[in-house]
Design brief:
6-stranded mixed beta sheet, single chain, alpha/beta, about 400 residues, 16 helices, about 40% helix
Length: about 400
Amino acid sequence: MSATRVLVLNSGSSSVKYQLLDMRDSSRLAVGLVERIGEETSRLKHTPLLGGETRERTAPIADHEVALKAVAAELAKDGLGLDSPELAAIGHRVVHGGKTFTDPTVVDEAVLAEIERLIPVAPLHNPANLTGIRTAMALRPDLPQVAVFDTAFHTTMPESAARYAIDVKTADEYRIRRYGFHGTSHAYVSRATAELLGKAPEEVNVIVLHLGNGASASAVRGGRCVDTSMGLTPLEGLVMGTRSGDMDPAVIFHLMRVGGLSTDEIDTLLNKKSGLIGLCGDNDMREIRRRVDEGDEQARLAFDIYIHRLKKYIGAYYAVLGRVDAIAFTAGVGENAAPVREAAIAGLEELGLAVDGDLNAARADGPRLISPQYARVAVAVVPTDEELEIATQTYALVGGADAGRAAEVHA
């Protein structure tokens, strides 16, 4: 029997999210989360999806090695342990791959060294991603470990989109360029949107709007990203839950010179105390909309700023693509906040865009069109599935019978 299962790991600084999938039919066998790693109140939540109830426990989990061993033990209880011959590979989400990694990559020491070298441009994410990979490698040194990079989908951007207009030598020395993030989501959603339209990805131009607490837009021409809103870091672009998005860089100098703020204080301000939470004290769009409906002017202003920025990017990417076949809303806000979708498209009728009120308000689980039939450009809601995308890319690289050979190579 060939190995058909892929374990997807998303290792954060104090958490591990995981899913086990069977790639014969892309079904999920188990999902779970370990959070508050390193604390006395660490929690593990595990859900087997082929029968059985969710199991939760709260107990100290000292580090990622202990966390992954606990995950392995929970999977083993369901007959899905890491020692199963049906496990083809472990796929890891890695936030930053720089210019080097343009595709999913089987991990070896050289790959680990390059991910580590990129820590200065992803200090919050890459160290945790590395910890997860190294821990998994220690647990199953015979199994292929595959890194799937958030930045990879955006490496097709032309230099005219990826370069900042600063001194080239300085930019190259410090690897300053626009990398983009949420790449697995943008890749999955752009493909799923083409499928919804009954076309091949190569035939379709799509603007993808990934709207969650973190938010990004991308312009995808024929299945390839040609522009995206996030840059060197995830701070650039749209208004987000706690991030400012686009801003005059001189604000930073002003805060240092006039406000006396340190670089760390400014970093915290722009990444954790700005965006929606900075504008109105809430970063949950449901709560903001409730306040808007009650006449709260501060919440209304925050919502209007959020929508204004979103419209600017829709218009900009329409111009970049020249022809747009669809706009796809995805992620927590994009999939669930009908008022955001309605407001973002309102007034863009001259661009061939419109939203049908009833279709937009209706709740549904799968991909769907919310534009009227007469609209020249389709407007869609397409639920993202980053874990499936990681599993798919991982399995495509080492899948089936090839997994065994890859395991021998990397043992």
